[in-house]
Amino acid sequence: MMSTEKQSKWEAYKQPIILISCVLVGAILGIALGDKAAFLYPIGQIWLNMLFVLLVPLIFFSISSSIAAIGDTRRVGKLLVMTIAMFIVTAAIAGAIMFIVTAIFTPDTSITIENTSAAVETTEQSIGDQIVNTFTVSDFPDVITRAHILPLIVFTVFFGITVSTLGEKGRAVSEWLANMSTVFYQMVNLLMKFAPIGLACYFANLTGTYGPELLASYGRGLLIYYPTMFAYFFIFLGLYAFVAAGKWGVQHFFKEIFVPALTALGTRSSAAALPLQLRACDNMNVPREVSSVVCPMGATMHMDGACLATVYEIALCCALFNHPLNGLGDYAYALVIAVAASVAVSSVPGGGAAMETMLISSFGFPSAALPILIMMTQLFDPGCTLVNSCGDTVASMMVSRFLYGKDWYKKKAETAA
Predict the structure, then answer these.
(1) What Å distances lie between residue 76 and 52, 66, 70, 73, 307, CA to CA?
(2) What span, in angstroms and rounded, lies between the C-alpha atoms of 347 and 322?
(3) Rounded to an integer, what distance in angstroms lies between the CA atom of residue 275 and that of residue 273?
(4) At the top level of CATH, which class does the domain 2-410 belong to?
(5) How big is the CA angle at 308 (ends 199 and 216), to the nearest 5 degrees?
(6) Domain spans in the chain, listed from the N-terminal domain onward
(7) Mind listing the pLDDT tens digit for each residue in 305-346?
(8) Distance between CA 276 and CA 78 in Å, rounded?
(9) Rama region for 81: left / alpha / beta (φ>0; ψ in -120 to 50; rest)
(10) Mean pLDDT of the chain, nearest integer
């Protein structure tokens, strides 16, 4: 009996133990080899590219099949409203926390950079154009690329709703979508068997190339952001999991989130971790009709980690350029901008350009602020991605709690046969 219990525990933790062991070996190898570790880059990048290739069809089939299977368009509307509200509330909480932290530990204003105002050019867009370009594209080929995830989600939701309105005529299409969704979920499971090798090689190149630089630049910003980020990850994501499913939710969330979190931290890509987030939701009995909508939407719209970083960058630039925030109105405005900017951040590495230009235009910072924001965004990016990505899983849990009641996790996950 005891040996059986030990064996079951080993089976439960075998994958994360093997994965973290391989990643640690890769990181140590990268530090030892330095730039020479670049020869391992192709192996890690091939594995990552396979995840990226799965992203668009996985989003399309998982969302459309779930919505088409619901049938009741009112339930779809309720799910979307609940999801977006959850994203906004948690992002606002994250931003408010960082405002408190920066009020206690003020950003370092000793940073000096060359004023590059003359070299910076920005193209202004009206609010209407920004809305149009964020949620739609003008040509179908553009909607099936990971560069336009939000337009893809909008198109997919519309497609799923259309199928659900056809009733019996749409049944065959709905079943085909469900079958294709199952195929792509299985592809993710098969690809995950190679995760230890892929992530080990990726981490080796990452630490060999960028490791020393991360600790050498903008040290105070790192010392403020990363402890705050990890505190938010463990305390607030844990609190959200508790709200969703009590102690069971906390225990299973931190157990299942390990592999997706490590992938997000190592690759700096919410998109790469998305298939793994969906897999984690399945393991926690989150209904597919919830996770397949919340997680893909969250990959581009749920950015608590980016909101933490944005608020710090606002506080830093306000201190550097003598632009103090006076009164509750200024802080409320800054929080709104931080939430809006975090929503605009892309799910792929280095996707914060829109956020940086938005901050500069919103607060009237000089163009010299741009190099600062670019540097800080790069340094914060791994932590941002970690919280951004893992927050989608716990958001799926909370949406399930409010849609299906407190015992949602005791039911079997709804799966498309």
Answers:
(1) 27, 9, 7, 5, 27
(2) 32
(3) 6
(4) mainly alpha
(5) 60
(6) 2-410
(7) 989 988 998 888 888 777 777 777 778 878 887 887 666 444
(8) 25
(9) alpha
(10) 79
